[in-house]
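ok so I'm stuck.
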Amino acid sequence: MLARANAKLTKSTMIKDINGRRPLSRRDFVKMMSAAGLGSMLGIPAARAMSSSVKAKIVVIGGGAAGISTAARLLRWLETPDVTIIDPSDIHYYQPGFTLIASGVYSPDEVYKPQSSCMPSGAKWIKDSATFVDAKKQYVDTLKNGKIPYDFLVLAPGLKLNWAMLEGANCDAPGEGDAHCIYTHKGAIKMWEGMQKFVDKGGRGIFADTYTKHKCGGAPKKVCLLTEHLSRMRKTRDKLKLDFYTASPELYDVPFFTPRLLEIYKERGVNLNLKSRITAIDTSAKKVRMEHEANGVKTTTVEDYDFLHYLPPMTAPDFVKNSGLSIEGGSHAIEGWAATDKNTLVHLKYPNIVCLGDVAGIPTSKTSAAIRKQSPIAAANLICLMEGKEPSEIYDGYAACPIVTDYGHVLMCEFDYDKKPKISFPLSLLDMSKEQWVAWLLKVYALKPMYFYGMLKGYV
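replied:
not stuck anymore, here's the structure
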């Protein structure tokens, strides 16, 4: 797999435990995956395997993981479903795979399918963009198809990579000036080219997240650690200086996993900078302007780089805020996330709207693993609302962030709203406070097919 991307890595390198611990055997992995499949089947609450004869016109905004998986469940659980999906995309990307493209593990064509093949059977697909929601008159205005009426709405349009909010960021020129962002398909491809160039040549690498809520908060950490490991495998580590900047007051906010992650950064010689963010990029000069905060005082520095990985600020799509569907107060109000009950996923102002996925203004991570848990709850509660009942299902904030720590290991972080660990079976049989080889196999081999053939179909 890595050989296809000319990484000069071998399968034995991928699974070797660099810390000297003996990894699980492949036979152990197969046994665990068999148990996981059975456990997943048994773990689906009977209340969600429902059937209802209620009738209503349902419109789903968004053809990503959240919209499609929720639509698939509604189509299966309603006896006479009327489900319309509004989404403009030709291609459906498995976005968790972008990190693996950027590190040479996946080839670029391994992470997408035609959107038409992902749409659930029985749904009407309007290939268009939502521009406004009139929640009082109950219609969605679209760019090309005019007004689409609804009785109930599933709001799942994802988020917006808001490049304009970061001076010098350019989504149209990924890799220009050795500045990279893996949050697009093209960006991930360019990142792999840039990572190899940087590792071979040496210099200073700057890796940074952003100050807004953002999808897959572990991605910047993964890119940093994979770059470091690649340099060790190519025996150029002494030529690199690596700095990680986070706008947060801590590297990670889930206490069960944080100690090991801090140890890894220290062991790898990666400099950690808290409460720091990029405010401007100059790709021609290869400099970034940084804002730092300490003891309530903000300072600014200008830093040189030879390699940069950054995130643009992220917000809800413009139409969400323009439609009056966003949170109106709090530290993240300017980002426009949908006002959502964190337990039922029902909109706080409009009870015939359910919100899930990246757009939802709920205090959990924006990951596909979170969406996998939100989808059945949103679908079941929507049916309850259609039947004139109170929502019956509760989302506990489950999210998972598989932080790839090297080529062969993943720190699989699973947690809930209270930032307490919620380790899935059979991973609960292992010490998941530390990186595991079996979690690498899950990340690289199991999660993508589960996404396309299980999650999008509404089965897992």
